[in-house]
Amino acid sequence: MDVSVHLIGPFKTFLNSMMAHTELK
Description:
Layout: H1 2-24
């Protein structure tokens, strides 16, 4: 379970970045 959270953490940040880029465009 710890590994799952560890992977989801950075993944969520990555998703937020992608969303921000989409909003800019």
